[in-house]
Amino acid sequence: MFKISEFSKIGQVSVKALRYYDQLNLLKPAHTDKYTGYRYYSADQLFQLHRILAYKELGFSLDQIRQMMGEDIPLEQIRGMFRIKQNEIQSVLDKEQAKLDRIKERLHAIENEGKHLTSHDVVLKEVEPQLVVSYRQKASLSQLPELFRRLDDHLESCGVSSLSQMVLWHGCEECEDDMDIEAARLLTHDMPSRSHFTVKRLPEVPMMATLIHHCRTTSPCTASTELAIWIERNGYRMKENEPRREICIPHEKSDDPEAYVAEVQIAVERA
């Protein structure tokens, strides 16, 4: 038998932690002197201690560990708790990876901030009326693929073929994290509107400032910023009540399903 101080050194935990485990009925001493109150532990209890520490390292709470170390707990219940913890950790990793991607994009934007437009050419052109079917919703940028999935499922159910996808970016003063996004597909033939899916003809725009760039649909990019800088420097202004348009074509040479070659279009007029 080992005194609590000796067991603490062997197990590499503090005496305070061992006393706390005792209070929680997580790791009771093998023997407690009824006169002095001294706690004594056996060598076999090191296995229990190491299991507790291993579960703690995996992120389980002491209450969860106490449940898993119960003698009557079914093995399947332990497996279930590990699956839940696995899903929790995977969710955290996914969120952190998304943050890391945004940080990389932000660093890239910072590095290119203030530089003159060298890799992109802005073209002024007239855009003819365009027939589209669209699905509009206040959503985050990451939800854009889901909006297009709903739109494409609707087109497939109607047996209608479509062309390139287009995003209409509307202003939204009351929005916080979400944006007013309209996912659209260019149509070759007219079709009826149904439920949340609207068929309409986008108006002709006599003068549209356009810029072609590479992008990912779920990530912010600097193309619109570059186009805005060009508009300001060249004596133009954005036309009111005209949403920014972005026509996206899948990038054939990329393995990324969200990689596109896109044309940003902003309706302008002389300032």
TrEMBL record:
Listed CDD domains: HTH_BmrR
SMART domains, per database record: AraC_E_bind (SM00871), HTH_MERR (SM00422)
Keyword presence, Repeat: no
Keyword DNA-binding appears in the UniProt entry: yes
SUPFAM superfamilies listed in its UniProt record: Probable bacterial effector-binding domain, Putative DNA-binding domain
Start and end residues of each HTH merR-type domain: 1-71
Keyword terms of this UniProt record: Coiled coil, DNA-binding
Gene Ontology MF terms in the entry: DNA binding; DNA-binding transcription factor activity
Sections of the chain in a coiled coil: 86-113
InterPro entries from the UniProt entry: AraC_E-bd, DNA-bd_dom_put_sf, MerR-type_HTH_dom, MerR_fam, Reg_factor_effector_dom_sf
Domain of life assignment: Bacteria
Any one Pfam family match given in the protein's UniProt record, by short name: MerR_1
Protein name listed in UniProt: Transcriptional regulator
